Amino acid sequence: MKILVIGSGGREHAIIKKLKESKQETEIFAAPGNGGIGEIAQCINISATDIDKMVTFATDNHIDLVIVTPDDPLVQGMVDALESKGIKSFGPRSIAAVLEGSKSFAKSFMKRHFIPTADYEDFTSYADAKEYIEQQTKYPIVIKADGLALGKGVIIAQNKDEALSCIKSIMLNHCFGKSGNQIIIEEFLEGTEISVMAITDGKIIRTLTSAMDHKRISDNDLGLNTGGMGAIAPHPLYTKALAKECNEKIFKPTIKGMLEEDRLFKGILYFGLMITKSGPYVIEYNCRFGDPETQVVLPLLDGDLLGLIMAVCDGNLDKVEVKQKPGSTACVIMASGGYPVKYQKSYPIDGLDQAKLISDLTVYHAGTTYDKNISKFITSGGRVLGVTAYANTLDEAIKKAYQGVHLISFKDAIYRNDIGKKAGAK
Ligand code: AMP
Ligand code: GLY
């Protein structure tokens, strides 16, 4: 079976590694992939958003299955284009990917289907947004660009001045480009964040292990928002009772609502949840696997990812079980100094071979390339590696992940020292 995975991050590395555990014989391509992915798949130099080239590659090479992983190509209609040529694809069509592509759509959808989410107002005019903020007395307040913004389009304003300057940057200075032509201003929710990913064929939804992300750059959740600096799974606060509540109030109504609106969602649906005193709320939907959650969730999947994906494509997810392994996982992201703003690239990475010797430790590559001249991986992005460990307990998994981190080095590397602490780990 010839499989093409679109994307280039640690998430894609984790997906490909899991696919290779399948009993089915596979030949895997990644576009564009990265240095680490190049060790286990054939990397193809096509940008993840180049729909025409991707369709041509998949057709010419008789690809049996395309897994479209990142948000941009999904929202832009990569699956629509592939399926129109008869190519089997995993991921939602653009009409369903809008759940992530437009926060304004997601919020009005939740309102229509009585799915709990923060109260909000929607604005396309700067003057109206400004007038609304002038009237607000309760802070912090949350301001979100409507469209995709590399995970950076959410600002928590602590006071009126911050809120005013934020809407000016988004709506007048276009700091997120067209994504900020429309904004959402919403109520700040207090509680515990939990990420839950689910696999769905649009009718049946099966959740994977819950996870905890660490979005800020520095320890104790300080500093700028990033793509995610680490994760653990399962989330210790995601109890069976809470899972049941989320299923009834959020997961099932989402799938049902999308179906009713003729937006059948197939693929991975990611629920960013806030567990408040009055129950679970949706902070955001993503129409894809989360990063770095995937790096901690897939190693805990007991069974065949490819089988699950094929069940979605063939519409028989009802016949397949999703089983989880016992134990815990932890992933610590090593990033380039200066990330998420400005950073240098092309630094050689040392210690990867030593880290490989630790049992149940996997180093997922995100921003790396292989430099043939020096026979080493070098840094090529903001998030460079996701050092991920599996163990019987969360404490052991975290300890082991940091053992790996301490063996690996590159110039100006940064990482958080408190991954999992919020979950009560030592
Ligand atoms: P997002 O990019 O939508 O994941 O948002 C980034 C982060 O902003 C989330 O992970 C939350 O920590 C925070 N956030 C978003 N919306 C809210 C909200 N309504 N209340 C509190 N925090 C929020
Ligand atoms: N870790 C959150 C995301 O993938 O958007």
Question: Which features would summarize this protein structure in a list?
Answer:
13 helices; D-amino Acid Aminotransferase, Chain A, domain 1; globular; 6-stranded antiparallel beta sheet; about 425 residues; 5-stranded parallel beta sheet; Rossmann fold; alpha+beta; Dna Ligase, domain 1; binds adenosine monophosphate; binds glycine
SSE blueprint:
Blueprint: E1 2-7, H1 10-19, E2 27-32, E3 42-43, H2 51-60, E4 65-68, H3 71-75, H4 78-84, E5 89-90, H5 94-101, H6 103-112, E6 120-123, H7 126-135, E7 141-145, E8 154-157, H8 160-172, E9 183-187, E10 192-200, E11 205-207, E12 212-213, E13 216-218, E14 222-225, E15 230-233, H9 240-260, E16 267-276, E17 279-286, H10 293-297, E18 301-302, H11 305-313, E19 323-324, E20 328-336, H12 352-356, E21 361-365, E22 368-371, E23 376-379, E24 383-391, H13 394-407, E25 413-414
Helix pairs in contact: 5-6, 7-8
The site of glycine has 7 residues, from loops.
